[in-house]
Every structure is written in structure tokens, then in C-alpha cells.
Amino acid sequence: MRRFGDIVAVDGVDLAVQEGEIFGFLGPNGAGKSTTVRMLTTLLRPTGGRAVVAGFDVATHPAEVRKRIGVALQDAAIDPLMTGNELLDLQAVLYGIDRSRARLRAGELLERVGLTAAAHRRVGTYSGGMRRRLDLALALMHEPVVLFLDEPTTGLDPMSRLTLWEEVRYLNKELGTTVLLTTQYLEEADQLADRIAIIDNGRIVREGIPRELKAQVGAPTLLVAVPDEQRERAREVLVAFGDIRPTAEGTLGVGLRDGAEGIAMVVRSLDQAGIRLHRMELNEPSLDDVFAEATGHSLEGARSRLLEPAAGAPPTKGRRRRGGRK
């Protein structure tokens, strides 16, 4: 538990991350993800409860915990006037790594994250993706057994995001590093995590293997876009085909009981009710559906995939999309 005055930021979070797994910690901004990570990494003292990381209590043995963990925070400060090499040298000194070992280790890490050519440049000249990769190398300098990544790809372009994903997979599969990854990106958690926990308002609302959590949701979600003035009438029609689900503003969602086979009947019913259909899309159960089922609202930042019609283009009947990690 963690309180800030009268505000309870984290309340009753109970997690057990297994050795050698990638554990995804998923939730919107302000849900308590970063606060939990700061407590687990000894940067913030819990106001209640107990946490053990790498075999040591974070409150009573913080120094032992720090020796065994690597941390790459979303808001990590990296001196822009220092070079990549200088920062890795400094990290080695802080962890008591001898010079010869540090030099070898730095070279390995820079090559691993693709920064060998930029090692002698000042960090102020690095792109956002390069800084994130350097931050990852710094977190790995002392070969931690547990790696904490706090929203590591926020603000990165798609290519940099994919590169970092590959690094996380390599660390986990090839080196056996245990990874706790916090993110608000559904796809990131779905692609990387062996297990996930979803946090909302400081509490864990779901936990398990992504594919199993999605299977529990059951029916796929049919998203439809109709004129604003016909939305309530359309909702009355859709409720006959399944449960109404939270969606992004501007669309309606229904857990289609009969799956793809029920689409034709939905279209016919909407037409008979005089409702003009702009767009339609069928999505297989996603982590956002899991979140919506658990909390009653859609995950912040998880937008409808429904495409806006191009200028001058006639409405189409939509498309079917499949996705998922496994």
C-alpha cells in the first residue's frame, strides 16, 4: 500500500512474479503502475504491506535489492553533456565493477543495443529511441537478475519500439533475465508478457496469461459507427445481439453472441430500424475488452480501430480484423 496524505495511490496490490518470466503491468495513467514500481525498486517506501524482490525485503534490505535489480524509468534523467561511454563507466564505478570488466561489459552492451557507433557522442545528440536504448544498457551494466522497465517505449516511433521489444525478448530468452514491464500499450503487453496484471485505481482487477484472459471475455466485439442522432436507437437494436461494451467515443460496441455469423442479422436489423451505418468492424477479444469487462470502462489511450472514411469516399460495410499474441 502507498498513501500520499489522504490519497491511496496503491491499495492491496498482490503480485507474484516468477523467476525468468516477463510480467506485464498494465493500466492507464494514474492507476498506480509507476508508484508500485518505485516501491519495488526502493525509490519509494511503502506505507503498508510487504514487498520482497530477488529474495530481499525492499523496506528492511534496500541495498541488497538494489544490487540485484536494473531499473529503466520513464522519466530517467541522463546527463546530456556526457557520452554513452562515460555514462557506462560511471555506472560501473557506482556498482563497484573493476575497470577491465567494465570496459568489456560496456562494449558488449553498446553492441547489443546498437549504439557502438554513437558511444563517443554526447547524449544530448541522441534521438529519443537512442536514449531509451542507452538507459536499458545502463540498467544492465551490473547484470541484474530482475529488470524493471517503466513504460519504456512511451513516445518512441514504431521502429524504435520494435527494436526495444526485441532487446527485451533477447534478455529474457537468452540471458534468463526476469522482467517486470509497466505499460499502457495493449499491444506491448500482448506481444511481450508471459503473464499480466491489470491495475485500475490502485487495485489489481485482473491477472493471468493474456490469451486465457481474452478467452474468458468470450464473444468478439462488433464496433459500429452511426450518425450521432441515431446512436441511442442503434444501441436498442444492438442489445438484442449481445452485451453492450465500452468503446471509444463515437462508436458503439456489442459482444456479438453469434460471432461473425451474426453480422448479417445485425446489418439487417439496423437497416429495418432506419439506421444509417457508416462503418462496422469485428474485433477478436483483446486486452482492452478484458479491461473493460473488469472495470466498466475502456483503457485510457486504447482507441477504436474503426477507420474514418477518406474524404469523398462512400461508406463501406467494414472489415474483419484478427489479432493477438498467441
Automatic annotation (TrEMBL):
<keyword id="KW-1003">Cell membrane</keyword>
<dbReference type="GO" id="GO:0005524">
    <property type="term" value="F:ATP binding"/>
</dbReference>
<feature type="region of interest" description="Disordered">
    <location>
        <begin position="301"/>
        <end position="326"/>
    </location>
</feature>
<protein>
    <submittedName>
        <fullName>Unannotated protein</fullName>
    </submittedName>
</protein>
<feature type="domain" description="ABC transporter">
    <location>
        <begin position="1"/>
        <end position="226"/>
    </location>
</feature>
<dbReference type="GO" id="GO:0005886">
    <property type="term" value="C:plasma membrane"/>
</dbReference>
<dbReference type="GO" id="GO:0043215">
    <property type="term" value="P:daunorubicin transport"/>
</dbReference>
<keyword id="KW-0813">Transport</keyword>
<dbReference type="InterPro" id="IPR017871">
    <property type="entry name" value="ABC_transporter-like_CS"/>
</dbReference>
<dbReference type="InterPro" id="IPR050763">
    <property type="entry name" value="ABC_transporter_ATP-binding"/>
</dbReference>
<dbReference type="Pfam" id="PF00005">
    <property type="entry name" value="ABC_tran"/>
</dbReference>
<keyword id="KW-0067">ATP-binding</keyword>
<dbReference type="InterPro" id="IPR027417">
    <property type="entry name" value="P-loop_NTPase"/>
</dbReference>
<keyword id="KW-0547">Nucleotide-binding</keyword>
<feature type="compositionally biased region" description="Basic residues">
    <location>
        <begin position="317"/>
        <end position="326"/>
    </location>
</feature>
<dbReference type="GO" id="GO:0016887">
    <property type="term" value="F:ATP hydrolysis activity"/>
</dbReference>
<keyword id="KW-0472">Membrane</keyword>
<dbReference type="InterPro" id="IPR003439">
    <property type="entry name" value="ABC_transporter-like_ATP-bd"/>
</dbReference>
<keyword id="KW-1278">Translocase</keyword>
<comment type="similarity">
    <text>Belongs to the ABC transporter superfamily. Drug exporter-1 (DrugE1) (TC 3.A.1.105) family.</text>
</comment>
<dbReference type="InterPro" id="IPR003593">
    <property type="entry name" value="AAA+_ATPase"/>
</dbReference>
<dbReference type="GO" id="GO:1900753">
    <property type="term" value="P:doxorubicin transport"/>
</dbReference>
<dbReference type="InterPro" id="IPR005894">
    <property type="entry name" value="DrrA"/>
</dbReference>
